[in-house]
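Quick start: what a row looks like.
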Amino acid sequence: MARLMDICTSRDPAQAGFAAENDAAMARMMAGMDIKPSGDVDRDFAEMMIAHHQGAIDMALAELRHGSNEQLRRIAQEIIVEQQQEIAAMRLALDQPLPPSMPAPTQPARP
């Protein structure tokens, strides 16, 4: 699968910035999902899903930093909040410490 950076030929700084951030988010997510099976299906599922959800958060943050469509920016904000809540629930189920609190994403729209 071609990476977003490889297929993005735009000279638009927002597009290039988004492509770079999205590519990095995908790489981190895929690396985080590549776990050694523990023998505990529930633990393995949660560990992979935490990485998957964090990837969604990282991609949504890139949309907030570089996107201009207000409907998509609102969806990105909702993704961040919902995925953070699910990560917290999975960590609690695994008896892991909760991630640090983050403010709700409310960055202003780009010009």
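That is the whole record. The helical segments are 4-7, 13-33, 41-66, 70-93. The radius of gyration is 16 Å.
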